[in-house]
Amino acid sequence: MSLSELEEFLQACAEQAIYIETTPLEDAARDFNLYTAEDVMAFIVNLGLSELTEKNCYPLEKPRWRPPPPPPDISVYAYNFWASKKGVRKSYLAFYRNPVTTFWTLKSFKMDPPPDGNFPFRDPRLLELREKLLLQQKPDEEEI
Q1: Are 55 and 78 in contact (CB under 8 A)?
Q2: How many CB atoms lie within 10 A of CB 80?
Q3: How far apart are CA 56 and CA 76, in angstroms?
Q4: Which range marks the domain in which residue 88 is found?
Q5: How far is the first Cα of the chain from the last one, in angstroms, to the nearest whole number?
Q6: Each residue of 45-69: pLDDT tens digit?
Q7: b/e map 83-112, b = 16+ CB within 10 Å
């Protein structure tokens, strides 16, 4: 995957010219407190995505509710990023260009689920701190 797709997608966000599917818009409200398509695009453009890294590129699958299958050459571009809203947590976005409308479409925009219920916002620096705290709380084997 080349950077040109990402650059074009970000430019379309800046121009408020992308289509956002229903599920990513609902996830944006739940995970990032972003309630409108305009808020989502502004968040993406204004670097709410830190440490953006390419995850993968895959062909668009046919949704069950749409009658015709999509053309086989539509690629979905997926990226991971660290979200700065609601703490620091690994998140995910995926997008593709609709060949009919030529609009970029946001297919997915969400935080990864918490790895455990005790420590939902995982930043690598915080993981190290958590491990240190857990070690301090363990009783010595002699005390048991």
Answers
A1: yes
A2: 16
A3: 8
A4: 3-143
A5: 56
A6: 886 677 778 888 888 886 655 666 6
A7: beeeebbbbbbbbbbeeeeeebbbbbbbbe
Beta-carbon contacts of 12 under 8 Å, excluding residues fewer than 6 positions away, are: 18, 103, 104
Burial (Cβ within 10 Å: 0-12, 13-18, ≥19) of residue 29: middle
Picking from 84, 69, 77, the residue whose alpha carbon sits closest to that of residue 108 is: 77
User: Can you give the pTM of this predicted structure?
Assistant: 0.70
Q: Which amino acid is at 70?
A: P
Per the structure, the count of domains in the chain is: 1
For residues 79 and 48, the answer to whether their CB atoms sit within 8 Å is no
Residue spans of alpha helices (H) in the chain: 3-14, 22-32, 37-45, 124-137
Q: How far is CA 113 from CA 26, 49, 61, 70, 136, in A?
A: 15, 17, 23, 29, 27
